[in-house]
UniProtKB/TrEMBL annotation:
This is Uncharacterized protein. It comes from Mesonia oceanica. It comes from the Bacteria.
Length: 361
């Protein structure tokens, strides 16, 4: 298809990124990049309802378009939603999600320029198609670079990378400090722990994680906060019982984020985030909080090891048992996720963790 000539500086854009919190936060860089280059443009960002907190107060988003569970489940409501998309008269659609439902949204938009990833179902609908890059060119990681690459259809001068940001208010930070005062933790060295992943198969075994927490307490004076929601309390308490008594005394379960924004504000006041790789790690990085993340053995590290340096460190089974990744695909490893998670013993990276703690505390 021939790319239409559009006044991109004043165009109306729709960025589509459904799915998880980490994906939405990462894709928000497209809104910033477009608005920085074209301040007069209108940028709308289509996301799932539960992910909205990570893009609250983002000055580069003119409107959040919300995809709800009701819309996804009801053909009637989906049709009504698509009609609303059509009425917006977008000139450019950038579909980061590029799944059948988002391609349908792109099709209904009638935008003159529609950009997405190359899939068998997107080729007849979209004007510009991209394939995922296999290797990163910068420290940003593939999740960042592949998203920024979508902007090349608009202007080849766009940068290869841009760091996601979260915008907390002074009121949110002040409120978090008051929460810490409940246990006299203001001005203490605090670490936020990501003890549970987005699913069980993405969660480091509790027994191993307990040893990680024991190492932290053995080697530092840090006090420990835990990222969890009330329905996860029973599992978190199991973890605490597996820790040494001294470690248990440093864990403050009464303090936790009762909302996603509250969690982010508490994390902002911590020296580092340590735990399972996932959306919470990405949020910490977007808040400029150092991270030490433990990857699930089947996760592609090159995609989500974003902006790694001496303050953002990760560990992956591939670091210690590379032969496994020569013999097996990530899909094969995922089928036996529990077995391979158990292979990533905390002893493997104990020294690395201790050196990291010296760096950030």
């Amino acid at each position: 298809m021939n790319k239409p000539q559009l006044p991109l500086n004043t165009a109306k854009y729709l960025i589509i990124q459904q799915k998880m919190i980490g994906d939405v936060l990462t894709s928000s860089i497209l809104c910033e990049a477009i608005k920085q280059k074209n301040p007069s443009a209108k940028v709308h960002f289509l996301v799932n309802q539960h992910t909205i907190p990570v893009i609250e107060n983002n000055p580069f988003i003119d409107k959040v378009v919300v995809m709800t569970k009701e819309i996804e489940k009801s053909p009637v409501k989906l049709f009504q939603f698509l009609q609303q998309i059509k009425k917006e008269d977008y000139q450019v659609v950038i579909d980061v999600y590029s799944k059948p439902i988002s391609v349908l949204i792109g099709k209904f938009s009638k935008a003159p320029l529609k950009i997405g990833y190359k899939k068998w179902y997107s080729q007849l609908t979209y004007d510009e198609l991209y394939v995922y890059k296999p290797k990163p060119e910068t420290k940003a990681g593939l999740a960042i670079e592949n998203r920024m690459h979508l902007l090349q259809s608009l202007d080849t001068s766009y940068a290869k990378e841009l760091k996601p940001k979260i915008y907390l208010t002074e009121e949110e930070i002040s409120s978090a400090k008051k929460i810490l005062q409940q246990e006299n933790l203001v001005n203490k060295s605090l670490l936020m722990l990501g003890v549970l992943g987005s699913s069980e198969e993405k969660s480091y075994p509790l027994l191993y994680l307990a040893k990680v927490l024991d190492t932290i307490v053995e080697t530092t004076e840090a006090e420990l906060l835990v990222n969890y929601i009330p329905k996860q309390l029973e599992t978190v308490e199991k973890l605490v019982k597996l820790c040494e008594p001294k470690t248990q005394q440093r864990i403050h379960l009464s303090i936790y984020g009762k909302s996603l924004r509250e969690f982010m504000a508490l994390t902002f006041l911590c020296k580092a985030f340590i735990g399972n790789e996932g959306g919470a790690v990405n949020m910490a990085k977007a808040l400029e909080v150092p991270t030490f993340s433990i990857f699930a053995p089947f996760t592609k590290r090159a995609a989500w090891a974003l902006y790694e340096d001496h303050k953002n460190v990760s560990v992956h089974l591939e670091d210690y048992e590379p032969e496994t990744y020569v013999k097996l695909s990530l899909k094969e490893i995922r089928k036996e996720a529990t077995t391979y998670y158990k292979a990533l013993k905390p002893e493997y990276f104990k020294e690395k963790l201790i050196n990291y703690l010296k760096e950030v505390l």
